[in-house]
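Table 4 source record.
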Amino acid sequence: MSDLRIAVMGAAGRMGRALLNAVHDVNGCAIAGGIEPGGNPTIGSDLGVLAGLGEIGVPVTSDALELCTRVDAILDFTAPKATVEFAGLAANARIVHIIGTTGFSVEDEAAIAAAARHATIVKAGNMSLGVNLLTALTEKVAAALDADFDIEIVEMHHRHKVDAPSGTALMLGEAAAKGRDVALAETAVRSRDGITGERRRGDIGLQALRGGSVVGDHTVIFAGEGERIELTHLAGDRSIFARGAVKAALWGHGKGPGLFSMKDVLGL
């Protein structure tokens, strides 16, 4: 059986390089291409050299349309506008699209869902095994405790992250809301400032911290009278997300069209 041909979108970024390393390290996978926007100084550079792997003879390109016609899967941790475009290309090419991008609008989500009628799309706010286990635990704990336990989700990321709350925090919020059988859109509180009054019973708080080089820290707090439960995941290396993305690509190959999550990949 031949190796799964994988391309990395946004290959020159920090996450892109981590993805290239993960593809290189996993048996049964091959780096088949990488994308950067036209005018990027890395266009034409060897992807292996870019990722510190040594020369592999595969250059960075800006032609996503052409690239999608000759690969089996694309790994995409870019930006919402680019991801929506890539989803359309993946649908046309009938290939696997792994989405780790966050910060989508309602219209973006609808476009991705439409693309999933023809592409195999695995989309998750976080690709790591630990975070997906944390998500499952959050739902179970929220279901076990009534609204006398206040839920707060606190996340911290590096100073360069552009969206808040993080996709992972929103994923955890959705899990908590599902456990409580409520809608996150109706219960989420994303910021507090000034004289806010007492906390409303049943609210789910989401607080975003930014600074330094933090890869990603997430804590779900269940605060009751006289006791508190905290579930925490600390990410120390982007490779955990990259390995999860490659695992998802292998899982999705041959699966057929549809919109899936890492819970599907991991069987959670």
